Amino acid sequence: MPSKPAKYGIKIWAACDANTSYTLNMQVYTGKPAEGAPEKNQGTGVVLDMAQGLRGHNITCDNFFTNYNLGQELLKRKLTMVRTVRKNRAELPAELLVIKNRAPQSSMFAFADTTALVSYCPKEGKNVVLMSTLHKNAETSTREDQKPSMILDYITTKGGVDNLDKVAAEGKRKRKRLPGLQAI
């Protein structure tokens, strides 16, 4: 991926503990099928595979994996989910995407039976949208930035895989070659 710091290598999906980065499950991405149609809803399949056997946990992931149906499927498995949402998702109410005339540090919420959405404007002309099956109300922090608790929970729990990547990269740098061996 040209925009990533490590542009080349093996793509590995990982499910990690948010606090310790302990790896619970991993799956190697083997690429697009040689023949036939590309995989549909790949992100949903990856999350469901990674969450196999888990109960009573919260899954935090980014917008590649997010859709309403995934959240509903995880609820059936006794799992909740907090995630960022791509703004081009059809399931998003149009009102949450409007940022014109929105005050900085303002929040707009939308609720369904089992799912909450928030659109938060950290500054003028920009918004962040999150979807959650964990949160049930429009609670915001008392901090100066008035971030919704949904966003604060996402920020607190999103770093497990990022930290694993950091630790793995550190291990690559520290690895030493044995004397007399050459790289091939």
Question: Care to describe what's here?
Answer:
- By secondary structure, the protein is α+β, with helices and mostly antiparallel strands.
- It is 23% helix and 22% strand.
- The strands form 2 sheets. A 5-stranded mixed sheet has the order 3-4-7-6-5, with helices on both faces. Strands 1-2 form a two-stranded antiparallel ribbon.
- A hairpin with a 4-residue loop joins β5 (106-111) and β6.
List keywords for this structure.
184 residues, alpha+beta, 5-stranded mixed beta sheet, 4 helices, 7 strands, globular
Gist of the model:
This protein is an alpha+beta fold and 184 residues long.
Give me the secondary-structure topology:
Blueprint: E1 12-16, E2 23-28, H1 42-50, E3 58-61, H2 68-76, E4 80-84, E5 106-111, E6 116-123, E7 126-132, H3 149-157, H4 159-174
Parallel strand pairs: 3-4
Antiparallel strand pairs: 1-2, 4-7, 5-6, 6-7
Mean pLDDT: 85
Write out the strand line-up for the largest beta sheet, numbering strands in chain order: 3-4-7-6-5
Report the helical percentage.
Answer: 10-25%
- Give the helices and strands as they follow along the chain: EEHEHEEEEHH
Biggest sheet character? 5 strands, mixed
Number of strands: 7
The structural class is alpha+beta
Number of helices: 4
Strand proportion, as a percent range, falls in 15-25%
The gyration radius over C-alpha positions equals: 19 Å
Low-confidence stretches: none
Distance between the termini: 25 Å
Shape estimate = globular
